# Entry
Amino acid sequence: MPETENSFQKPSEDLKNLQLLEEISRDCNASQRKLSQRLGVALGVTNACLKKMVKKGYIKIKGINHKRISYYLTPEGFSEKTRLTYHFLEYTVNYYIRLKKNISSKLDMFLKEDIKRVVYYGAGEVMEVAFVTLHETDLELLGIIDDDKDKQGKKMFSFTIQGPESIKELKPDAVIITSIRYRDRIMQNLRADKELDGLPVYTL
# Structure
């Protein structure tokens, strides 16, 4: 995965196909609308994927009429699901290896700039990797920040996730943005906060 979080948010065609095959294997009576909702894609996308899989022989359609249709995986469909599962697992492992290596080099750079006490901004998957990687350095993590009200107040590792208003109280040497999907928005908000003028902000 070359661009970290974005690759999870915008899955490849292979991943969408895998998700569809898994949903059908779990519930052969699910309607196209229900499949679309579960996958978080437009109805037209689901319809196109199903037609492609039928054409390739991965899925068979059985039904009395268009209102009562069931989808079944063929033996070829089960083989394709297994292949895609292996491919995605390999892809994910390689992604985390590259992500950890990239974060490690960035954290080493921060230390060379005499940054020792930091806060992480963004409580997601990238932050989890950054948290583990930080323990291989001499950096001190003061807190974890996130804009999401549903996350604030919850525990993550040994920290309680706080809102951005807590940054000033924590008095870090720098803020490290640990989200790639929301990186630009977080950077904009931090730059607009006059109380944080002069505080270095870095991205991973």
